[in-house]
Amino acid sequence: MSTVPDSDRFEIEQLIRPMVNLYKISSHGSPVAFVRQKRMAIKEDIRFFRDENETEELFRIKARSLMEFGGRYDVTTPAGEKVGVLGKVFGKSLLRSTWSIMDASEQEIAVAKERSQFWAIVRRVIDAVPYGDFIPIVFHFRIDRGEAHLGDLTRAFGMRDRYTLDLSGDQERTIDRRLGIALAIALDALQSR
Q1: Cβ–Cβ < 8 Å for 60, 47
Q2: Across 59-84, average pLDDT
Q3: With 151 labelled, which of 59, 112, 114, 188 sits at a CA distance of 20 to 30 A?
Q4: Three-state secondary structure readout of the chain
């Protein structure tokens, strides 16, 4: 059973804190999840909670291995039931980041790809500059299943990381909304790994 509202649109806001990234996920103005990601973790284990006090875990992203070019991340319930898998497609990501979105049986159900080749290259150049993380850049992904456009992840321009995840094109509910929210956080938190 999904613990995230059956919504198509989510707002993600990152709150910068020393040694952790905090995210607030809302739908139609109401908070639906809070995320705490430790920076410089050896093996990613990102947990999503119902409230800021972290009293109830909803789901998590867990890296399969310490170092891998095309990293795979399991999205699971707190009990370990697999919701789906997110995988960075290494070869296609060299010039334009591309992620595979897979269901619980690891069958690809969609692909998230940076929309603009130009901005993808600009982002890589800025990432290589000292303190480049403080330079706001365009960061947009398109989520497709074959020729069908399922949705978008769009970064609002500004100093703070704020995104809109819109899955309104996924009327058949191909992507579990927990998996969609996990993708949004992964695209922000795990891009440079």
Answers
A1: yes
A2: 86
A3: 59
A4: CCCCCCCCEEEEEEEEECCEEEEEEEECCEEEEEEEEECCCCCCEEEEECCCCCCCEEEEEEECCCCCCCCEEEEECCCCCEEEEEEECCHHHCCCCEEEEECCCCCEEEEEEECCHHHHHHHHHHHHCCCHHHCCCCCEEEEEECCEEEEEEEECCCCCCEEEEECCCCCCCCCCHHHHHHHHHHHHHCCCC
Q: For residue 103, give the nearest of 176, 46, 168 by alpha carbon.
A: 176
Report how far residue 91's alpha carbon sits from residue 9's, in angstroms, rounded to the nearest whole number. 30
Residue 93 has pLDDT above 50, yes or no: yes
Q: Spell out the residues 6+ positions from residue 63 whose beta carbon is closer than 8 angstroms to its own.
A: 43, 44, 45, 71, 72, 73
Total-model pTM? 0.85
